[in-house]
C-alpha cells in the first residue's frame, strides 16, 4: 500500500476511468488468489463504478474504477497486489487507448530470448513507422504498447496486432509461435499473443507490483535498455519509485495520439 501511495502520481493516469479486473490475494502471494470483476454489495459509495454489459455472461458487470489514491488503497486492501485495467476507458469503452503486443515465453525460454524477439517487434514497428513502448511484465515476459488514441474498435486493433505478430513470426520463426493452444504449442518458443487486444482483456498495468516473491514491478523501458542481460528482477518494489522519479513516466505517450493503422499497413505492403 505504501508503494502504491507513493507511485500514485505515475500510475493513476494509467488507471483512471478504466474498469478494473481484480486479481485478489487476501492471504498474500502464498495463499489462494481469485479473480473478481463485479463490485461487492459493501463497496463504499465513494468508489467509482461502471456498469458494462458482458456478452459471455449475458448480464451487466459492475466494475470498480480506480481514479484516486483512496480508491487505490481500497483495491490494495482487498488484496489486489497487481492492478489490471482495461485497454479502453469508460468514456469510449469500445475503442482501446492502445494496442498490446504480449511476448509470452515458455518455461524453456530465458529472458534473453524475450529480448531478442522484442527487438524484432521493434524492427517491424519501425518499418510501419509506428512507435512502440516496451515494459517488462514483471513476470517472465515483455509487453510492447502502441498508442491507438481510441480511434479504432477492438476488432480492428486486434487484427492489426495479428498482422504485426505474423510479420514478427516470419522474421524469427525459430523462436516464436502464434499457436494459442498450450497442448499444441512448441515448448521452446515464445507465444506472440495478439489476443490481449480483445474487449475486456486485461494485463498488469505499467508500474504495477506483481505477486512474486522478488517483489517485481512491471516497468517501463527505453528501447536502448532492451538488450541482453536485462532481467525482470532488475525492477522491484525497492527501487522502482526512485527510477520513475529520475526518468519520469516513460509510458505517458501511450495515452496520447494514436497510430494510423491504414497508413502503417500501406508502408508494410511496400516492403
Layout of helices and strands:
Blueprint: H1 2-15, E1 19-20, E2 22-24, E3 34-36, E4 48-54, E5 59-65, H2 69-77, E6 98-104, H3 111-127, E7 133-136, E8 142-147, H4 154-171, E9 176-177, E10 190-193, H5 240-247, H6 261-269
Parallel strand pairs: 9-10
Antiparallel strand pairs: 1-5, 2-3, 4-5, 6-8, 6-10, 7-8
Helix pairs in contact: 1-2, 3-4
Low-confidence stretches: none
Lateral arrangement of strands in the main beta sheet:
7-8-6-10-9
**How many strands in all?**
10
How is the biggest beta sheet arranged? 5 strands, mixed
Computed structural class: alpha+beta
Number of helices, where a helix is a run of at least 4 consecutive DSSP H or I residues: 6
Gap between N and C termini: 49 Å
Rounded to an integer in angstroms, the radius of gyration calculated over CA atoms is 18 Å
Average pLDDT confidence is 96
Strand content: 15-25%
Give the topology string: H per helix, E per strand: HEEEEEHEHEEHEEHH
What report would you give on this structure?
The chain contains 6 helices and 10 strands. It has helices at 2-15, 69-77, 111-127, 154-171, 240-247, 261-269; strands spanning 19-20, 22-24, 34-36, 48-54, 59-65, 98-104, 133-136, 142-147, 176-177, 190-193. The strands form 3 sheets. It has a 5-stranded mixed beta sheet with strand order 7-8-6-10-9. Strands 1-5-4 form a 3-stranded antiparallel beta sheet, with no helix packed on it. The chain is globular, with a radius of gyration of 18 Å.
Amino acid at each position: 500500500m505504501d508503494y502504491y501511495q507513493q507511485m500514485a502520481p505515475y500510475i493513476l493516469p494509467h488507471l483512471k476511468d478504466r474498469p478494473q479486473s481484480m486479481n485478489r490475494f487476501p492471504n498474500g502471494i502464498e495463499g489462494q488468489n481469485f479473480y473478481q470483476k463485479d463490485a461487492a454489495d459493501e463497496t463504499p459509495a465513494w468508489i467509482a463504478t461502471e456498469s458494462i454489459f458482458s456478452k459471455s455472461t449475458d448480464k451487466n458487470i459492475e466494475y470498480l474504477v480506480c481514479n484516486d489514491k483512496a480508491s487505490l488503497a481500497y483495491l490494495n486492501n482487498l488484496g489486489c497486489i497487481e492492478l489490471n485495467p482495461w485497454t479502453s476507458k469508460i468514456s469510449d469503452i469500445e475503442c482501446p487507448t492502445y494496442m498490446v503486443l504480449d511476448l509470452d515465453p515458455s518455461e524453456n525460454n530465458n529472458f534473453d530470448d524475450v529480448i531478442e524477439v522484442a527487438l524484432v517487434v521493434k524492427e517491424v514497428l519501425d518499418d510501419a513507422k509506428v512507435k512502440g513502448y516496451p515494459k517488462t511484465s514483471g513476470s517472465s515476459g515483455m509487453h510492447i504498447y502502441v498508442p491507438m488514441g481510441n480511434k479504432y474498435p477492438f476488432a480492428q486493433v486486434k487484427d492489426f496486432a495479428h498482422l504485426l505478430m505474423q510479420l514478427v513470426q516470419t522474421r524469427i520463426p525459430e523462436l516464436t509461435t502464434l499457436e494459442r493452444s498450450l497442448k499444441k504449442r512448441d515448448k521452446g518458443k515464445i507465444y506472440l499473443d495478439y489476443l490481449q487486444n480483445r474487449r475486456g482483456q486485461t494485463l498488469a498495468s505499467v508500474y504495477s507490483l506483481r505477486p512474486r516473491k522478488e517483489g517485481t514491478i512491471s516497468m517501463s523501458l527505453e528501447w536502448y535498455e532492451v538488450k541482453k542481460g536485462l532481467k525482470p528482477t532488475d525492477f522491484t518494489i525497492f527501487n522502482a519509485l526512485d527510477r520513475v522519479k529520475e526518468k519520469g513516466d516513460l509510458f505517458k505517450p501511450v495515452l496520447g495520439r494514436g497510430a494510423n493503422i491504414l497508413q502503417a499497413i500501406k508502408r508494410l505492403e511496400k516492403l
